[in-house]
Amino acid sequence: MKDMKKAKMVDFDTEYAPKSSNPVGKVIVTIILILWTVINIFPIYFIFTFSLKSNDEIFGNNIAGLPRNWIWSNYTRALGTGNMGLYFLNSILVTGAAILISLIAALMATYAITRIKWRASKLANAFFMLGLTIPLQASIVPVFFVLKELHWLNKYSTLIIPYSAFALAMAILICTGFMVEIPYDLDEAARIDGCGLWRTFYQIILPLMKPAYATVGIYSYLQCWNEFMFANVFISDSAHRTLPIGIQQLSGSYTTDWGPIGAALVIATFPTLIFYISLSRRIQESFIAGAVKG
Fold it and tell me: What's the whole-model pTM score?
């Protein structure tokens, strides 16, 4: 019997042992991954070198090569002459406030919908999800008249409030996917220990929702940082313009000198890459957590 068991174990190990991979296949996969990496990195390289060139190099025979003369003054001209420094700070202020408001509102709304028992919870969730079906383009006119009646045009709140409102639906959808997986026994145990509604929310639920923060933050950041239509229609003074509008104004005023325009594009693009890289591990953890829970 022991010999038969050993034989079966040997057969099992032989049958299910992982086969050695083909070296030719490894080489092909490596080449494909290298090419894919180059394709993804090349736009970043191109826009960075573009921002350090003169018009002669940009429109001459050195379009994709390294700059012969590294013109760092393009950045000072973009920040000074093009007023990009102010637009950059405005974008940081508007985007940061919109992310914070949408995240706090989404967490509180999700907690009320998923953890508190009341009759209209499903109806409230459906009402919030209607926001996913409303495109920004269709809401420009009504939002403009509402802001005009409230005297909110040409202010920071002119963009912060609409950005937060339009990011709320997706933020609630993301937070709901995480919060429904938290065992309801934790709420009951907290109540037994004397925790009220708010204390349970802050001390039990919020720490378990950390993976969702990065996902909501990335989504809201991309939606607010790159938004053009609201900022172009609702803001008419230069003191409250954001980066997309600043770049558009720069290209209209300095069309003969493309170096500062490339520098402005780098200023607008690289913070997005840095923001994503800093939160990429959190996003990966959120995906893994969702896969394990599922």
Answer: 0.77
